[in-house]
């Protein structure tokens, strides 16, 4: 069952509901007024408003026999504070200023396309590949190659999910060379990712 913050995210995922919120930020509206402004049926408008209400983004008050929909400012602030929270973790994966914790500061954010990360004390490429998927605050996927891997290409997948009390950050590194000869490489990469996450935790809690 979704909690209210999750229902708020669900409500904001629909562009029509985002437009309704913009209008409610300017003035309170009845179901009929919403329906007329968006050229939809009252039933459709009522469904959108119900989802916004369940997400804690609007309130409904009675004006005689008429139901009036109003923006819930506190509810909006609460949901957008979660976006700020996700922003923090997303920045560690893509923002040049945060990536500089581990690498020489990149010239641009990590987005879909080819990338290369160099050492902090040299111009030597530590890792390279192609970013395949970038869904801000949610999913990041890129191919990953380092010199000891030769021509082998692996895939790194990051996922950010809301959980009670915070954010769950999941890392999957797949497609690595297999066999006894690659065992040392796997151990080294495992140690490297442990250090990567440790630096992230230390920086995130520095304040």
Summarize the structure.
With 207 residues, this protein is α+β, with helices and mostly antiparallel strands. The protein has helices spanning 4-12, 15-26, 31-37, 42-54, 73-94, 96-99, 183-204; strands at 29-30, 58-63, 66-71, 113-118, 125-135, 139-144, 154-163, 166-174. The chain is elongated.
Q: Explain this structure to me?
A:
The chain is an alpha+beta fold. It has two domains: 4-71, Arc Repressor Mutant, subunit A, CATH 1.10.10; 84-204, Alpha-D-Glucose-1,6-Bisphosphate, Chain A, domain 4, CATH 3.30.530. The protein has helices at residues 4-12, 15-26, 31-37, 42-54, 73-94, 96-99, 183-204; strands at residues 29-30, 58-63, 66-71, 113-118, 125-135, 139-144, 154-163, 166-174. It has a five-stranded antiparallel β-sheet with strand order 4-5-6-7-8, covered by helices on one side. It has a three-stranded antiparallel β-sheet with strand order 1-3-2. Strand 2 and strand 3 form a beta hairpin. Helix 1 crosses helix 4 and helix 3 crosses helix 4 (42-54). The radius of gyration is 23 Å and the shape is elongated.
Defining traits:
about 210 residues; alpha+beta; Arc Repressor Mutant, subunit A; 5-stranded antiparallel sheet
Query: So how many helices?
Result: 7
Assigned CATH architecture of the largest domain: 2-Layer Sandwich
Portion in strands: 25-35%
Number of strand segments: 8
- How many domain modules? 2
Question: CATH homologous superfamily of the largest domain?
Answer: START domain
What summary fits the major beta sheet? Answer: 5 strands, antiparallel
From the alpha-carbon coordinates, what is the Rg to the nearest angstrom? 23 Å
Give the end-to-end Cα distance, rounded to a whole number of Å. 34 Å
Helix content: 40-55%
